[in-house]
Amino acid sequence: MISSVQDSRLAAIRDKVATNQRLSFDDGVALYERADLFTLGELANLVRERKNGQFTYYNVNTHLNPTNVCVYRCTFCAFRADLKSPKGYVMSDEQILARAAEADQRGATELHIVGGLHHQLPYEWYLNVVRLIHQHHPRLHLKAYTAVEWDWFERLTGRPTRELLAEFKEAGLGSLPGGGAEIFHPEVRDRICEHKADSDAWIRIHREAHQLGLRSNATMLYGHIEEPRHRVDHLIRLRELQDETGGFQTFIPLAFHPDHTGLAHLPRPSGVLDLKTMAISRLMLDNFPHIKAYWVMLGIKTAQLALSFGADDLDGTVVHEKIYHDAGSDSPQELSVVEIRRLIEEAGRIPVERDTLYHEVIREEHNWRTGRALHLVGTGR
Ligand code: V47
Ligand code: SF4
């Protein structure tokens, strides 16, 4: 390996990071190919502390996957089921409300709702999920449906996504999760999920959501057939949209889990790739306020280390996660608040409970309320 000290491009990157200048596509690829892990950690930590100080955020949330039946067959997905498969399910209104009530009683501030694109369910069924929960549990923030699902709703109804997003917002939609982004570059996307929403559709839908005043997250699925240049291309496309709208809150790099998928022959991404990707994401996405180490996907130990490699958020208590557990994740189903806070403190950071939109959450006896908006540094707003 070329020493980072001797490498003039790495020296130039170090200067850029120190003086808060934007990194280029070539810089990003060079970081993947030539920088050692310590250099990456040092640089990413500089940016992380510049933006978020010692704070590390978490939330109290629950997942809801109303159906796993899906018309698509993404090669990396172990969650989906065929229409007639015994594994397939569609939750009833009662089951959905029971999950929401459980979350509310546990003091959750957020429900994260995503699922499959069912062959037969109409658009109104998906709308009803949000409307129903919002009517019964108005305090729960509903972070619902990925851009792939919004694109499916457009195909189902023939109506523009902008109009559908507005209709859902009226019904109680709070924000959009970051899923469905995978890898934008067509050389990869066409091989892992060729039929679903393409990168232009994903970007357009998030732009429309931001224009309607909805915040959203972004993800990248890495560690399968993609190369560093595809990852860097992905990050730059997200950075460009963020320059335009400022509507992204958090970026979440998602490590590929191969078990029970069409890519089961591939090894799991290494710990080194996990930490490199976390750090390079922090460095390239200079206009994203937060980078999330999703512990369900990284495993608790790597997620804790990631707090020194650019990440400032651990996601939440989670509960009822299916997408990663179907694909072989051996993380627990749930982390308690006590455990999350201990992990953060042991890493030398200050734990802060946030709601979905990054307001501080203040707990009093059996109740909670939101406090000040946690400062979104680096967004230019
Ligand atoms: O889009 C599916 C990924 C995503 C596998 O917005 C897989 O706060 C790895 O987007 N191995 C859904 N990844 C999850 C997601 C997410 C998670 C946590 C927080 C947020 C947020 C969003 O999961 C899918 C896909 O990219 N995925 N199968 C798999 N076998
Ligand atoms: Fe369906 Fe989503 Fe799985 Fe693709 S990743 S097969 S769209 S559930």
CATH topology of one domain, what is it called?
TIM Barrel
Estimated share of beta-strand residues:
15-25%
* Helical content (DSSP H or I, runs of 4+): 40-55%
Number of helices: 15
Described by its quaternary structure, the protein is: single chain
Main CATH class of one domain: Alpha Beta
Q: Low-confidence parts lasting 5 or more residues at pLDDT below 50?
A: 377-381
Distance between the termini: 41 Å
Can you summarize the main beta sheet? 7 strands, parallel
Order of helices and strands: HHHEEHEHEHHEHHEHEHEHHEHHEEE
Q: What is the number of beta strands? A: 12
Please tell me what the overall shape is.
globular
Strand order across the largest sheet:
2-3-4-5-6-7-8
Annotated CATH homologous superfamily of one domain: Aldolase class I
Average pLDDT taken over every residue:
94
Small-molecule components bound = ligand V47, iron/sulfur cluster
- Computed CA radius of gyration, to the nearest angstrom: 20 Å
Give the second-level CATH assignment, the architecture of one domain: Alpha-Beta Barrel
